[in-house]
Design a protein that fits this description.
Layout: E1 2-7, E2 11-17, E3 22-29, H1 36-49, E4 59-64, H2 70-81, E5 86-87, E6 97-98, H3 108-121, E7 125-130, E8 133-139, E9 144-152, H4 154-163, H5 184-215, E10 223-227, H6 231-234, E11 243-244, H7 248-261
Parallel strand pairs: 1-4, 4-5, 6-9, 7-10, 10-11
Antiparallel strand pairs: 1-2, 2-3, 7-8, 8-9
Helix pairs in contact: 1-2, 3-7, 4-5
């Protein structure tokens, strides 16, 4: 069993994975002010909740889009399991060819998601990660990462809207009964949920069409996978056929770990 951690801008995803299954997936808040000891206590608490002893864990891997906290999380992991984790980044084998202008700028979470999507669902494939930002990654029929899009995240957009307007309230992210809202909160929820679903549908259509022109693939051959903390809120309201896989990131981390410890 390995400990897999992905540090995002808002949440840290933590889970334990082996060849058979994912034992759990939990989220902790990303906090720049926490020390390695505070993170270690948080990780240890999660492991204890699932009755997992440090002796059961034989390896660890971390991906992060928050460079400032990588060494803090690395040290926290070393404190609780006594193992130096593998850090996803330059020099780590992923099996993914990045056909990008600046490959080093591609977020490690996007790389990990793509690795898992190819392994689980094949290529060509589009991967949507609905989190602090909504990202869409495109992988061609030769399993090359060819690019994608980054959109403002749903909570980021709603929080910005509320902070810049005097009369709009904070809302919960849930779909109202109809697209046409009958009050301010329902109107905002419609924009947040149905609006983002429509945006994802439109981007999927455009990216899939462009990918098919590049590769000669048929549109129905391009599968679309969604993951991330807010995917379950938005994807059910999309018109495209999108497979929800909220364990995609942990699966990708296990695949990358295995590629580098063989």
């Amino acid at each position: 069993m390995i400990l897999a951690i992905d540090m995002g801008n808002t949440n840290i995803v933590i889970g334990c994975v082996d060849d058979e299954k994912i034992y759990f997936e939990e989220r902790l808040c990303t906090d720049y002010s926490k020390t390695e000891l505070e993170y270690a206590i948080g990780f240890k608490t999660v492991l204890e909740l699932y009755n997992i002893e440090s002796e059961q864990i034989h390896g660890a891997i971390i991906s992060s889009v928050v460079p400032q906290l990588v060494n803090v999380i690395k040290s926290a992991v070393e404190k609780i399991i006594g193992i130096t984790p593998l850090i996803v980044g330059p020099g780590v084998k992923t099996g993914l060819n990045l056909l990008m202008d600046q490959p080093k700028q591609v977020g490690t979470d996007m790389v990990v998601d793509a690795v898992a999507a190819i392994h689980e669902y094949g290529a060509p494939v589009l991967i949507i990660d609905v989190g602090t930002a909504t990202t869409i990654s495109a992988v061609d029929d030769k399993k090359n990462y060819v690019g994608g899009a980054i959109l403002p995240g749903i909570r980021v957009s709603v929080d910005s809207l509320v902070s810049r307007t005097a009369q709009l309230p904070r809302i919960s992210l849930e779909a109202p009964k109809s697209v046409i809202g009958k009050n301010t909160i329902a109107c905002m929820q419609s924009g947040a949920v149905y609006g983002n679903a429509s945006c994802i549908d439109g981007m999927v259509d455009r990216i899939r069409e462009e990918l098919c022109k590049m590769t000669g693939a048929e549109q129905e051959q391009v599968k679309v996978i969604a993951t991330g903390g807010l995917a379950r809120v938005i994807v059910p309201y999309c018109h495209n056929e999108i497979i929800l896989d909220d364990k995609l990131l942990l699966k990708g981390l296990k695949i990358i770990y295995d590629k580098n410890v063989e």
